[in-house]
Write a structure and sequence with these properties.
- The longest helix is centred in the first third of the chain and has 18 residues.
- The chain has a single domain, classed as tt1808, chain A (Alpha-Beta Complex), CATH 3.90.1570.10.
- The two termini are 17 Å apart.
- It is of the alpha+beta class and 205 residues long.
- The strands form 3 sheets. The chain has a 6-stranded mixed beta sheet, sandwiched between helices. A 6-stranded mixed beta sheet has the order 4-7-9-10-11-12, with helices on both faces.
């Protein structure tokens, strides 16, 4: 969903204040503000399916899912970032008055043409530096394909799942996510190559 970029550096407080009053969400990367474009109906359906399945499995438990309106803050020695993941599961939530979370156990992104490179490179690096993170789950939206980065001590193991009969076990959360539930109601394209989005083509022409 990331699109056009603004080329001015801003502070964290200014960024957070701006996000309270604008209709278009933006991500914050070390002073740079990157505006986000809207997602397709297919993208949103995959995200919503995941939210419903995970929320049902976690009902009555301390860990809860948060959908894409909740920011994720990543602050390290040389990094200050705020992302809007498609979904995150948090077991140690921030204060109710805050607009972001710091300690996700699971972060999930659905790939699209405008976010593919970010999700597979920049965000992979950023998310896997979060101490609390156990799983980074990346989903294709045009075919039933999932990539899971699963923490194994100090590193992350990469696993791939393909097909509607597969399930993704997330034992740290006590749940299993079936791809049949993730892709319920999705009409797949013949290949996994995603169709272009007009806004993405405009921004990169």
């Amino acid at each position: 969903m990331s699109g056009a970029e603004k080329l001015e550096l801003v502070g964290v407080d200014e960024y957070l204040t701006s996000q309270e009053s604008v209709s278009t969400k933006s991500e914050y990367i070390d002073g740079w503000v990157r505006a986000m474009t809207g997602a397709t109906n297919r993208h949103n359906r995959v995200t919503e399916n995941c939210f419903l399945a995970i929320a049902a499995s976690l009902r009555g438990k301390p860990c809860q899912p948060h959908i894409f309106d909740t920011k994720l803050r990543i602050i390290r020695e040389h990094t200050k970032r705020f992302y809007y993941p498609d979904l995150q599961v948090v077991c140690e939530p921030n204060l109710p008055s805050e607009t972001f979370q710091d300690r996700p156990v699971l972060v999930l992104e659905v790939l699209s043409p405008t976010t593919r490179l970010y999700d597979l490179d920049e965000k992979l690096t950023a998310y896997t530096q979060i101490p609390s993170l156990q799983y980074y789950l990346i989903l294709e939206q045009h075919q039933p394909i999932a990539i899971l980065y699963r923490r194994c001590g100090s590193w992350f193991e990469r696993l791939e799942f393909q097909g509607m009969d597969r399930s993704i076990d997330l034992p740290r959360l006590g749940l299993s996510l079936a791809l049949s539930a993730v892709y319920e109601g999705i009409e797949f394209t013949p290949t996994c190559v995603q169709e272009p989005e007009p806004q993405y083509q405009e921004d990169n022409s």
